[in-house]
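Q: My labmate handed me this sequence with no annotations at all. I'd like to see what the chain might look like in three dimensions before we decide whether it's worth expressing. Could you predict it?
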Amino acid sequence: MKDFATQKHPASAASPVFCTIVPPHILGKLAESDDPARHEPARRTLEHDALHRTRRADLTAQLIAPQEARVAADKPNRTIYDAGHQQNLPGNKVHSESEGPSKDASVNRAQTGLGATFAFYLKAYGRKSIDGAGLPLNATVHYGEKYDNAFWDGQRMVFGDGDGTLFKDFTIPVDVIGHELTHGVTQYTASLDYQGQSGALNESVSDVFGSLIKQYALNQTADKADWLIGADLLAPGVHGQALRSMKAPGTAYDDPHLGKDPQPATMAGFVQTSEDNGGVHVNSGIPNHAFYLVASALGGKAWERAGQIWYDVLTGGHLAKNAQFADFAHLTVQAAQTRYGGSGAEHEAVVKAWSTVGVTGK
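A: Here is what I predict for the chain of 362 residues:
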């Protein structure tokens, strides 16, 4: 493995990427199905996602342009739009922060998920919205026709309704919402390149904090959490629990239509591929599992110590955009020592976890 030296860079440099919760390898498997009910939504979703990835350069130019100054807020400012099953963003405005519950369950779930993410970052780490400066949170529901995905596009959360056969409404799992919004946090902090190991770290960070947001909302300790990403997303009849498992990567699903979960738990299973930006959704299982091992070793509420260490690294300004797994491991060991001391359980747990998954030596 080639190691890259870390470098300090400005946290304000936003480099958005088009990040989806359902990885291309699942959609690609579905696209090969002989059943139109399965392959048509998957093919449309793949075509859509490929098109949006090609638009990232234009979006980047928009987002790094000067923005209006805003006052950091202790309360969220959420606005929900309805795309009406079209692919025009943002859609029609249907709900604002001051309004009561909507008659549309998707609108209410999106509103709640945005709020849960805002509350988590504020109360756990003192972060005011995903940019740390009170960024308004916008979301669009009912996007596309049977669109089998949800994504963060650098400006907003967008939710498909799912096909109803394999995937349910993407507003249902709060960890999916937390995952996608955390791509926004990464955009405003470490801005990790979305390819290879740095891209897998980008995905892993979103899985880590997506899971912690769900645990925080449920007031769960590490031993009570399921450590699954998207546990409520798969439709009845699908052979699987979720999209990914941090506790046991590679076991989230094994379904005739979705295929088998390909995530490795250790570097021994690292996947070399040119697909999915170098396997960002696959190899993320390795740092995911490292975090699970740290959190389970420390016990208690995972966001308090394990999550704090990961947050310190993400926001500390020393994580290079092209960081490799070994770079991230080194920084988490340093962060654990800085915050908790070199002889504490936190430092020991982090060192052992990265060794266990094969990123560092014993």
